[in-house]
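task queued by scheduler; priority normal; single chain, no ligands, no partner chains; default sampling; output format set to structure tokens
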Amino acid sequence: MLKKIAILLEMIKFEHTVFALPFALIGAFLAAGGVPDLAVFGWVVLAMGGARTSAMGFNRIVDVEFDKKNPRTVDRALAAGTVKMSEAWAMVVIAAGLYFFACYNLNPLTLLLSPFALALTFIYSLTKRFTWLCHMVLGVALAFSPLGGFVAVKGTLSGFPWVLSLAVILWVAGFDTVYACLDADFDRKAGLFSLPARFGREKAFRFAVLLHVAAFGCFIATGILCGLNYFYYIGIAITGSALFYQHLIVNPRNLSRIQMSFFTMNGLISLTLFVATWLSLAVN
């Protein structure tokens, strides 16, 4: 059983929850003006873990036939047969149940918004079949993270810094566009949509740069609107450096270091911004 759970968690890259969870905590900390109530903190973490697990499990299920044909993804658990379809669906349902249970234990508005947030993550998994704007859809889905964290504490949308969610949309769309370059040729042959498949890797990279520049500006604006201090802007400086570095080490003609660009740098960005926000609120 433990081995099967480990395979399922590896299948959905559970460790990549680090991309979204810190932003949910940023929203919660901004709403609370510091560290939120411990129970709220725990429910937010459970909700984020459940939502992402369910969404990624659904993504693997609906993409399994494509994964079997793509050399890059043929070893994924469902495609390779090490996980049964029934087991994957069970994970999706159980994780979704944990997500809704966590939202129920927060407040009525969180529970009311929860189906829309989860549905959007499911819809994203289907968008590559009909639009090259799929990267933006993923960004919108993850932008619910800070919004959800804020509402979990406040129980209202009033006062939420919307520019933070805009920053997340642009940041996620940018790095997902870069990552999609790995599958540009396969997507084109399979009739799937993405920016690299539609416009080529060169133009996709240029667009990703523009998205990340805009995201950086929105992260700065978040600090200004929320009255955060120099700790936050130290985090902003690290964020800017990480964004620059990931575009420095990966280019349309050399994708060999994309794992460092996609996972290491973006994980660093989300964690850095969370810690910077926390420290800024702590010394205000």
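post-processing summary
- The chain has a mean pLDDT of 93.
- The chain has 14 helices and no strands.
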